[in-house]
Amino acid sequence: MKILMVCLGNICRSPMAEGILREKVRIAGLDWEIDSAGTESYHVGEAPHPLARKVARLHGIDISGLRARRMTKSDFGYFDKIYAMATDVCEEMQAIGRQEMDMQKVDLLLNLLYPGENRSVPDPWYGTEPDFHSVYTLLDSACSKMVASYVQAAGS
Ligand code: 4NP
Predict the structure, then answer these.
(1) CB-ligand 1 contact for 6 (6 Å cutoff)
(2) pLDDT digit string (tens) for 79-129?
(3) Which sign does the torsion angle of CA 29, 32, 33, 37 carry?
């Protein structure tokens, strides 16, 4: 399984989601490929936001080696599943993907927790540390659900 997590800048939400999912997949012993990207290019090449790194580290997850990249059209072919962090991210993805965007592969991450509600992970860019903790909690719950559902389906 190849999974891509997508937000706007690829420095707050999606790198945290990438780090969290990598850890859960490692613990579950699954051979998945996980990556993240942003729909915008303002932060390309940068490490995750200091508070994203700090909050992940408090949970034993090191995301300091990740570097922001912009999503490309070819990501729609390569990945099996693409999770957008928010509805505005989904709209930007449509502009990048155009006819390559396979809607079967794309979903909002929080639809794993709240099916059909199209909720967004709040953008913590202008926020403070508590906002990054809330984002972490949401991402952690969604990634747990993803792995648990997969393991359950694989075993049945
Ligand atoms: P992210 O957060 O999409 O979770 O990485 C943002 C990071 C940067 C900006 C917006 C959101 N920005 O406007 O620079």
Answers:
(1) no
(2) 999 999 999 999 999 999 888 777 889 999 999 999 999 999 999 999 999
(3) negative
Give the three-class secondary structure for 81: strand
In whole angstroms, give the CA distance from residue 135 to residue 8.
14
Strand partners, 9: none
Query: Is any atom of ligand 1 closer than 6 Å to the C-beta of 9?
Result: yes
- Looking from the CA of residue 7, the nearest atom of ligand 1 is 3
Tell me, letter by letter, the H, E, C secondary structure of 83-152: EECCHHHHHHHHHHHHHHCCCCCEEEHHHHCCCCCCCCCCCCCCCCHHHHHHHHHHHHHHHHHHHHHHHH
